[in-house]
Structures are given as C-alpha cells and as structure tokens.
Amino acid sequence: MDMPAPLPAPRIAHGGKSLYGAPLGILMLQARFPRILGDMGNAQTWPFPVLYKVVRGATPERVVLQGAAGLLDDFLAAAAELVDQGAEAITTNCGFLALFQKEIAAHVKVPVATSSLIQVPWVQATLPPGKRVGVITVSKGTLTPRHLEAAGVPLDIPSVGTEDGREFFRVLIRAAKDDMDIDLAAQDILDAGRKLVAAHPEVGAIVLECTNMPPYAHRLREALGLPIFDIYSLITWFHAGLRPRDFGI
Fold first, then answer.
1. What dihedral angle (degrees, nearest 10) is formed by the CA atoms of 191, 196, 201, 202?
2. What torsion do the CA atoms of 131, 207, 100, 238 make, to the nearest 10 degrees?
C-alpha cells in the first residue's frame, strides 16, 4: 500500500512591524523647495524603497544656520517612530545633523548615518600620498568644529560653501521662494568646486556635505576630473549592508 506523501512544512510569516520592504528610514527637514530627481527627498532617487519622516519645526535655516538648537528630542522621537514602523537603519537629509549622530544611534539602537561627511575618513584612505579630501558645504560659515568632530572629519579639511552663490543657498536655506532655477543652482555648485581646487590644489576627491547636491555631482565630476562622493554614495553603500545582494549561493 502506498504511503501518503508527506505534507509540506508550513510557511510561517512573522510580524512585529507596521511596514515591510523598506529597511532604511530617512529623517527629513521641514521644507518646501523643489526636490528634483537626485535629491534625497525625491523617493524616485533611490533604487530601493525608503521610509520618510518629516521633523516638524526642523527648517533648513534652523538646522544649518542655528545649529539645530532645541531639536534633539524631536529628532530622537522621529527616529524612534521610523524604527517602530519598520526601519532597520536611520539616515537624515541634512549633513549638519552629524551633531546628533551619537545621540540618535544610542536612542534607536540601530545603525545610523546622519551625514555624508562620515565618508571623509574612508575617502581619505583611498587617496595617494599628498592628496586630501575637500568638502563642499551649503554653508561654510556655520559648519563648525563640532560638526566636523562628530563626523570624524579633520578640523583643517579644505572646504568651501555656497553662501555667495545666486540660487542654491538662497532657495534651500533662506527659503526665498518655492521654485528653483536648476541651471543657476548647478552653476553655484560648479563655482564652489572650482574655488575649492584653485585654493587647494592638493584636493584629490570631494565630499558633498549637502544632501541636495547629488543632482549636480556628475557635472562637478566632469568639470574637475575628481571623484565626487555624496549622500547618494553613502546611502547606497549603507543599504547594501542592510540587504546584501543574493548571488544564489
């Protein structure tokens, strides 16, 4: 008599989260300027799904120009909410939030990458002797030693800001208007890059502090002939650890 075929093992789905399939949570500043493709706040920028949480009251002016004073608790609460929803790691959409790197990581107890500036030591390790990393920031005047120390960046790093530009700083930080001339914004980034390498010919690679700068990184690379790193390069690396590629082994 034939024995009945064994029943397949039950397939059990496990819960515990509100959302699935998006392991990266992004803490967003409260702003209304255009978020073009390549901007961290444009979900189509990413080749993987992400979770967003806007931190109310955390305007670019308050975070960049005022040192994010009084906002730590708001960021801690927002990060915890993202983790509760399903995020397995946290990042932010402002490089100046390096100030909160240790506090957010300690609070949510998952991997945290607050700022593209944390790439600086890694990029420096790739350069030949005599070459240094340079930084382009949205606001050199308010990028303080506290920000650099929190990201592990040398205090004497060559850097330049966009405060003197015609469009980028005015739209993003001063919130002068809701629209943006993309070509003028790009020119501001290119001008800053040329100024940086003219003043510091030893610069062998550039890290873009501002998370709104990735749309212009390819043009900067073409203009300067140097490797350009930004929040996109950081977060695609970060996500690769959260979801390693399956090679079928």
1. -140
2. -110
Q: 3.40.50.150, 1.10.287.1490, 3.40.50.1860, 3.30.2010.10: which CATH number matches 116-230?
A: 3.40.50.1860
Q: What is the CATH architecture assignment of 24-115+235-242?
A: 3-Layer(aba) Sandwich (3.40)
Sign of CA dihedral 174, 178, 181, 186: positive
- DSSP label at residue 134: E
Task: Give the pLDDT confidence score for residue 185 in this predicted structure.
Answer: 97
DSSP 3-state of 229: strand
| Span between the terminal Cα atoms of the chain, in Å | 39
Mean pLDDT along residues 87-97 = 97
* pLDDT score of 203 more than 90: yes
What are 129-173's pLDDT values in tens digits?
A: 999 999 999 999 999 999 999 999 999 999 999 999 999 999 999
- Smallest CA-to-CA distance from 91 within 63, 62, 130, 117 is with 117
Per domain, the residue ranges of the chain are 24-115+235-242, 116-230
Amino acid at 202: E
CB 99 within 8 A of CB 118: no
pTM higher than 0.90 for the full model? Answer: yes
State the alpha helices, DSSP H only, in 109-249: 120-126, 145-151, 168-172, 182-199, 217-224, 231-242
- Residues 163-196 as b/e (b if ≥16 CB within 10 A, e otherwise) read bebebbbbbbbeeeeeebeeeebbbbbbbbbeeb
